[in-house]
Amino acid sequence: MRKYLAVARITFANVLVYRWEYLISQFRAILLLITLYFLWTQVFKTRIILFNFDREQIITYVFLATILRQFVIISATDQIAQELQSWGKFFSYLLKPIGYFSYWFTVDLVYKLTSLVSIILIIIIPTIFFQIPFVQPAGILTFLLFLLATFIAILIYFYMGILVSTTGFWTPQVWGLQFMMLLILEFSAGAYFPLDVLPATIQSVIKLTPFPYLLYYPISIFLGKLSYIESIRVILISTLWLFAVFSVTKFVWNKGLKAYEAWGG
């Protein structure tokens, strides 16, 4: 445990070293949030209900999606591909008394917590200034189910990130795949709007993937869009997706280790 705390301290120090890049990423998130807030505010000036959402629900969805995005989709796992191509740097991890996945989960968690704290502090300002009303969870059980669904979402995306990065075992051209995955994932996860906005056919296809379980379904639980039975069903399905993504990641990872050749360092 002590060694992972040391990893966390070092990671936090590194985040502070590159604080300008970090602040720019936070500025992008808050700018997107403000844009979506004014967009939906204008839309609901002439409507009371749209896509089975009222104004308070859609505003809560947008704000909550922004917060969860910083905690679920913001990840350090994209750095793994770079290390696999860094002339033996990855090999040094294999000699250390620390689990590689555990190491990156610790680094990932520091990135997420730092992003989460900062985005919440940033959101407080427009919330107070514009006096934005938010929907509260129906009860403590709803909130606990929401937290559980969010935790599973974090794990799913963590292993997804590693899975994409494992292509670095075979090719240095990983950035394009990571970028494409992020675009598809944010759209399909409901990072910018609830999936209810999309045509029914597209919704049906997207809901066959693990992506909606990252943001859309946890937020739907929070908003009370799902009953307790439906919420538990969503959590069970997301757990199955976690097991599936983990299994595929471990399989590809082990294949990559057999193909890995350390040059230099």
From TrEMBL:
InterPro entries: ABC-2_transporter-like. It comes from the Bacteria. Coiled coil: none annotated. Keywords: Membrane, Transmembrane, Transmembrane helix. The chain crosses the membrane at residues 20-40, 61-81, 101-129, 141-162, 174-193, 205-226, 232-253. It holds the Pfam family ABC2_membrane_6. This is ABC transporter permease. It comes from Candidatus Curtissbacteria bacterium RIFOXYA1_FULL_41_14.
